[in-house]
Amino acid sequence: MAHSAPRPTWHPESLAGRLPFLRRRAVLTRAVRAFFEARFYLEVETPYAVPAPGEEVHLRAFATRRTHHDGTSENLWLHTSPEFAMKRLLVAGAGPIFQFARVWRNHEGSALHAPEFTMLEWYHPSPGSGARHGMAMDALIAETNDLLRSTLPAVVRCRGITTDLSRFERLTVAEAFFQHAGVDLLAIGEDAAALAAAAGARLRKGETWEDLFFRLLLERIEPALGHHHPTFLTHWPAAQAGLARRDPADPRVAERFELFVCGIELANAFVELTDPVEQRARFLADRARRNVLYGPDWPLDEDFLAALKHGMPPAAGIALGFDRLAMIASGADRIGQVLWLPPADLT
């Protein structure tokens, strides 16, 4: 028996199936804007096509090309995050700022991933080096929790998991690995064989410490996070936080956290690295690894490094997947349900 082709996403019946989720998304958008405006954040817009879209090792970006009025042209890339642009604005004195940004990441597509999606990012100048240790991260965690409680119901349910927002748990990466993988991550260091032995895992051919770290994270750690209450997973190994400041109390880790709600990774945050020398060194290391894996791509973002050198104030910032927040708010099972015109393979 022949199966009929799926309806296109513009078909009235197709939209009707998504419309309850999309109406909830619209309400959520207004609530988020009101939250930040009440806290005197300024909404900004930054360019989408940029000379360098980021420096993450496994970043896969969409390429484009600009032709200037004089006939010359240059390669540009659709940004994967507005982070570098928004930090430039912090240097200029624009903070505190927030943005609903359309971003693009190639080679992505699943129930929780779309190649084009909306990132909610916000940045706030934070206490300087003389402030109490951990104050900037504490403040950002508190503000993120306030955002959830201000814009979502007290109890949310998404993808079969119910989460109570009345309180949250906070767990370091080292604590999470000890609880769920039985290993002392920081004591082992970046030794892949030792980590595999401690975790009772078989080291695969060619698997690096980073590869194994993320395999254990995905298989053993993340499935246990953000169920009964939101989980803030903090203090990542410094090698896994290329844009975050090292923790002054323990330089093996950086001041980064991820947020999990309803078992979904929802946000990624940093107490920002503002040292241009260290940032350049990290960029060069990440670029070298990425180019070995995927070949040459975009030039180093010298303009961003020049902005850091000019002087970026101490700051904390966070990138939150707004489509995933809309899924949690509406109870959607797939990201395509909260997109107005999703790609056909995400419906």
Question: What's the helix and strand layout?
Answer:
Layout: H1 12-38, E1 42-43, E2 49-50, E3 63-67, E4 73-78, H2 83-92, E5 97-104, E6 116-125, H3 135-151, E7 155-158, E8 161-164, E9 169-172, H4 173-181, H5 185-188, H6 192-199, H7 209-221, E10 231-237, E11 246-247, E12 250-261, E13 264-271, H8 276-294, H9 302-311, E14 315-321, H10 322-330
Parallel strand pairs: 1-5, 9-10
Antiparallel strand pairs: 2-4, 3-4, 5-6, 6-14, 7-8, 10-12, 11-12, 12-13, 13-14
Helix pairs in contact: 1-10, 2-9, 4-7, 6-7, 8-9
Describe the structure.
There is one protein chain. This protein is an alpha+beta fold. The chain has ten helices and 14 strands. It has helices spanning 12-38, 83-92, 135-151, 173-181, 185-188, 192-199, 209-221, 276-294, 302-311, 322-330, and strands at residues 42-43, 49-50, 63-67, 73-78, 97-104, 116-125, 155-158, 161-164, 169-172, 231-237, 246-247, 250-261, 264-271, 315-321. Strands 1, 5, 6, 9, 10, 11, 12, 13 and 14 form a nine-stranded mixed sheet that branches. A three-stranded antiparallel sheet has the order 2-4-3, with no helix packed on it. Helix 8 packs antiparallel against helix 9 (302-311). It is globular and about 55 Å long.
Observed structural traits:
single chain, 347 residues, alpha+beta, BirA Bifunctional Protein, domain 2, nine-stranded mixed sheet, three-stranded antiparallel sheet, 10 helices, 14 strands, 23% strand, globular
Radius of gyration: 21 Å
Chain-averaged pLDDT? 94
The count of helical stretches stands at 10
CATH superfamily: Bira Bifunctional Protein, Domain 2
Strand content: 15-25%
Helix content: 25-40%
Number of strands: 14
**Helix vs. strand class:** alpha+beta
Order of helical and strand elements: HEEEEHEEHEEEHHHHEEEEHHEH
Shape: globular
| Poorly predicted runs | none
Tally of separate domains: 1
CATH architecture: 2-Layer Sandwich
CATH topology: BirA Bifunctional Protein, domain 2
CATH class: Alpha Beta
Largest sheet: 9 strands, mixed
How far apart, in Å, are the first and last alpha carbons? 23 Å
